[in-house]
Amino acid sequence: MNVLMINGSPRRGGNTSIALKNMAEVFAKNGIDTEILEIGGEDIRGCIACGKCGQTGKCVFDDSVNRAAEIFERADGLVAASPVYYASPNGNIISFLDRLFYSTSFDKTMKVGAAVAVARRGGCTATFDVLNKYFTISGMPVASSRYWNMVHGMSKGEAEQDAEGIETVRMLAENMSFLIRSIALGKEKFGLPEKGKMTFTNFVR
Ligand SMILES: Cc1cc2nc3c(=O)[nH]c(=O)nc-3n(C[C@H](O)[C@H](O)[C@H](O)COP(=O)(O)O)c2cc1C
Q1: Which residues, given as ranges, of the chain have pLDDT below 50?
Q2: What CATH number should be reported for the domain holding residue 138?
Q3: Which domain holds residue 38?
Q4: Do 35 and 46 meet the contact criterion of CB atoms below 8 Å apart?
Q5: pLDDT per residue over 163-176, tens digit each?
Q6: Residue nearest to atom 6 of ligand 1 (CA)
Q7: What is the pLDDT of residue 149?
């Protein structure tokens, strides 16, 4: 079993990394492998709506989005973690997730998702909400903790001092591990849910 973790921050070893490192420790304890992709320092461009992915199943820009897609296809869960920039996820992770989710047609049903927001002070719940939207349009159950998944810190390393935030993301990883393992058993016993028919109306009746 494995979880792909995306870090939107450009700061290596920054506060988002600290949150993910804590989660990775809990996953390891539970026998779940992790791969952390630090995409914050990369030149990730946004989706240009060319529609080529509809024919090829991958993004026309052959960068870490396509590499992440291969890992994501095999993964049992996805963690999207972002520093808060102007009360939203940072630009890199938005561009990355737009292209990752839009360009891939493999089934994401029952891959468990979790979002983590990291900020000095404000904008965490808005960020959390935006990140969760990728999961909830994809048949992905969302793991939760005992507080919304936010960690506070400004300068590199300050997140270590946010005891409640660190406990929240560790608990999140515990709950996500449980969900991943339970879904694996459920899939064996009951299979995946049936796919209903899908009609696009675009609000035109
Ligand atoms: C461009 C920019 C915008 C930011 N906007 C916010 C914000 O809206 N709210 C906030 O609390 N912190 C804001 N911050 C602070 C970061 O969220 C904070 O330093 C966080 O710990 C960065 O995480 P990192 O170390 O993983 O990069 C901003 C930082 C930058 C560089």
Answers
A1: none
A2: 3.40.50.360
A3: 2-190
A4: no
A5: 999 999 999 999 99
A6: 85
A7: 98
